[in-house]
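Example 9 (inverse folding). The structure is encoded as follows.
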């Protein structure tokens, strides 16, 4: 081998637990080269020796024939001295090693692959109808990892010794289950146990006879009961989605009167019975991530000979959250039970994280669930379902969890070891170092000690796995949030860096889109503590990730009762009308008839006396006020409900706004102290006059969206021209509103501007941690 060469390859990315080593073994043998491949804590190391043609062929295959779940983020090639030829062209997979370099990436959980589904339904296969079938291309990853590198001994599967058949597969480099860490079968793996909630809870559940346990579960669901089912990253509360009494009972027991419930549907054909599905949506529903997608519902046809979804699945909304079965257990429930759809909502009590432990489930969910379907594979990391939708052909996430977390996001600036604790609502935290940010799974609303404990536990785990010891702790500017107090607690003398809430939204969108240059930002949100100690949420920024200037905003209006008003849109409407249009206090409006007179009097007094009120420029609160004014929602039971239902009403409009021209429905623009101000007075006055005249509420809701988009584009054009910029970033939770996003983008394009739209990083507070890291990294010298 006089002309032979020898290379060492150091590879980082998603290269552990995704069939990468058997892939390398296969292509090495195909190319006839010698050497080895092994996992290290930071990724994969390969040694390869052969003639130049063999090495070239190997490198081509390495880049072009990756396993479906693998991703290479960096590949370093080091030339090494030749070894003697004693290996005789043999290539080996050797045991995992350790290193002090940065840790390997942790793979998200992966939906069941087609090969495993085929075996699941093959009566001749030894894993026929086994609810925990998996291979290197699918199955649990993140939810079972205890330590890294990702080896079976460091997962919750360590307590299930492999049988001889599984051991053989696990050790065979050409087998699909080579080093598939969760590999198992009915002989050696986890099992199910059905627990009848009406009977005394057994001291020790007997796990086994999986199909019999599934049949008991199916019988319970067909009887209209609610079953707590242990899944991949936690429990689901499950009932028949076509059984209205069952769905209504679930809502009552969970104290969730209105918030939409997600459903699981057996296949795409059944999804199309309920919803409209584009090709892009269908592909994402079937992808290895398989998130919940918000899909437009078909109109109910009582004459159709198909099952209809219960009315209370998503009351007052035109869409429903849909997912396909993503574990073998789910597939078996549908195959054996023949359900058209099942409600699958998070198994948790109000204001608490999703339940993951069997005993905890029976203790905490027994007043909601009638029965329980448990299994004895431990869930080490809670992880809820991801939620998203499509804008044209582009996926947009509103909750980034299963299938996505904890995948890293690239930064535009080098970050020191950093922890960003995220926002209070829709919390996601971030750990960052150099040019990578690792976003956690969805944590939830950090307004209780239970969720704060979940946040702290998850931070400790990810710090350990990624070998990141934060030197910098980033938090929201608001001093009284639980997340801010947590940041102060864990800082322990380390540097603290506060970032204003809407600056973090802006920086998150810039980072997600790779934009380093100065840009205009429209930041429409619900609530965020401003630098002037008022509540912001309708802001126009100009700047970059490093620094922004507030150059415009919605006219600040009084928020009676502060945060308490968020749950009572009627009070916001009363305050806004009393402030801007006091002559309409006795107008013949449904608003006044649906609110107690004492409440109206108290709100007006609070505004006049400036008692327990705080000015707010929040567009979210403006949506609340308009929602109440149009009799859509006077009180809410979940965050954003008033705005979501207002958008749903607007989508039922004829969209012919010309017939409303007489009512002068528009927002005015004022210039004060070099600030562009959206003045909502003419819009509110026009809405009231149109309501009195009996105009369609749906048309008025649409016109409100249309006019807000138009004034936003007008102000953006002024700012962009002054600063000679083209790109306009749309960010903040209000831009989860697809109608407003579409109309605003259209108005911007008509003015020759380039809208930058929400994408794979949540535009709501789930993206705040990324923005916090980005701002801190850009200002690290300070």
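The amino acid assigned to each position is listed next.
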């Amino acid at each position: 081998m006089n002309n032979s060469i020898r290379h060492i390859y150091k590879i980082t990315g998603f290269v552990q637990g995704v069939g990468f080593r058997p892939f390398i073994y296969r292509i090495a043998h195909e190319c006839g080269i010698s050497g080895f491949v092994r996992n290290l804590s930071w990724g994969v190391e390969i040694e390869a020796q052969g003639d130049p043609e063999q090495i070239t062929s190997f490198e081509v295959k390495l880049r072009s024939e990756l396993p479906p779940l693998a991703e290479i983020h960096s590949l370093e090639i080091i030339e090494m001295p030749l070894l003697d030829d004693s290996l005789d062209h043999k290539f080996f997979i050797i045991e995992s090693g350790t290193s002090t370099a940065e840790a390997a990436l942790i793979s998200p959980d992966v939906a069941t692959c087609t090969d495993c589904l085929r075996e699941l339904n093959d009566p001749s296969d030894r894993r026929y109808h086994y609810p925990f079938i998996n291979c290197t291309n699918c199955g649990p990853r993140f939810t079972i990892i205890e330590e890294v590198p990702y080896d079976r001994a460091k997962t919750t599967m360590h307590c299930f010794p492999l049988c001889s058949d599984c051991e053989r597969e696990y050790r065979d480099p050409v087998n699909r289950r080579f080093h598939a860490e969760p590999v198992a079968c009915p002989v050696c793996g986890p099992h199910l146990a059905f627990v009848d909630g009406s009977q005394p809870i057994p001291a020790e559940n007997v796990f086994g006879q999986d199909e019999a346990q599934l049949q008991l579960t199916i019988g319970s669901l067909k009887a209209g009961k609610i079953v707590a089912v242990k899944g991949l990253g936690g429990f689901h509360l499950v009932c028949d989605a076509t059984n209205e009494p069952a769905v209504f009972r679930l809502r009552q027991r969970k104290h969730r009167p209105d918030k939409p419930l997600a459903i699981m549907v057996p296949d795409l054909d059944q999804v199309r019975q309920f919803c409209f599905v584009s090709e892009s949506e269908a592909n994402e529903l079937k992808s290895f991530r398989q998130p919940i997608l918000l899909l437009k519902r078909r109109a109910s046809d009582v004459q159709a000979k198909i099952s209809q979804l219960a009315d209370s699945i998503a009351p007052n909304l035109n869409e429903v959250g849909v997912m396909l079965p993503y574990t073998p257990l789910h597939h078996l429930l549908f195959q054996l039970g023949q359900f058209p759809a099942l409600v699958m909502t998070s198994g948790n009590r109000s204001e608490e994280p999703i339940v993951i432990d069997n005993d905890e489930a029976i203790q905490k969910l027994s007043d909601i669930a009638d029965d329980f379907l448990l299994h004895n594979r431990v869930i080490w990391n809670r992880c809820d379902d991801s939620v998203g939708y499509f804008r044209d052909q582009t996926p947009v996430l509103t909750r980034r969890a299963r299938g996505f977390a904890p995948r890293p996001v690239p930064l535009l600036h080098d970050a020191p070891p950093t922890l960003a604790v995220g926002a209070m609502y829709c919390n996601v935290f971030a750990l960052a170092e150099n040019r990578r940010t690792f976003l956690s799974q969805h944590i939830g609303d950090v307004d209780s000690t239970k969720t704060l404990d979940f946040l702290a536990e998850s931070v400790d785990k990810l710090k350990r796995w990624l070998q990141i010891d934060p030197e910098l702790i980033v938090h929201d500017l608001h001093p009284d949030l639980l997340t801010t107090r947590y940041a102060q607690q864990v800082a322990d003398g380390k540097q603290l860096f506060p970032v204003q809430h809407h600056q973090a939204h802006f920086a998150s969108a810039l980072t997600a889109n790779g934009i380093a240059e100065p840009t205009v930002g429209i930041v429409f949100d619900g609530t965020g503590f401003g630098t002037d100690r008022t509540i912001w949420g309708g802001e126009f920024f100009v700047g970059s990730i490093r620094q922004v200037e507030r150059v415009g905003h919605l006219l600040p209006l009084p928020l009676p009762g502060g945060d308490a008003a968020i749950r009572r849109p009627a009070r916001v409407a009363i305050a806004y009308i009393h402030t801007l249009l006091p002559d309409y206090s006795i107008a013949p409006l449904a608003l006044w008839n649906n609110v107690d007179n004492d409440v109206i009097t108290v709100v007006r007094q609070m505004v006049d006396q400036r008692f327990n009120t705080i000015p707010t420029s929040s567009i979210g609160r403006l949506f609340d006020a308009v929602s109440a004014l149009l009799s859509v929602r006077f009180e809410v039971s979940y965050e954003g409900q008033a705005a979501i239902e207002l958008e749903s009403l607007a989508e039922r409009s004829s969209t012919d706004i010309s017939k409303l021209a007489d009512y002068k429905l528009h927002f005015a623009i004022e210039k004060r102290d070099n600030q562009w101000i959206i003045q909502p007075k003419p819009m509110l006055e026009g809405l009231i006059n149109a309501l009195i005249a009996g105009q369609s509420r749906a048309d008025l809701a649409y016109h409100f969206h249309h006019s807000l988009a138009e004034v936003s584009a007008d102000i953006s054009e002024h700012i962009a021209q002054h600063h000679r910029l083209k790109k306009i970033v749309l960010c903040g939770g209000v831009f989860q509103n697809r109608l407003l996003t579409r109309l605003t983008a259209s108005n911007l394009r008509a003015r020759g501007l380039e809208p930058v739209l929400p994408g794979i990083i949540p535009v709501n507070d789930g993206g705040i941690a990324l923005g916090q890291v980005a701002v801190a990294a850009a200002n690290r010298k300070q």
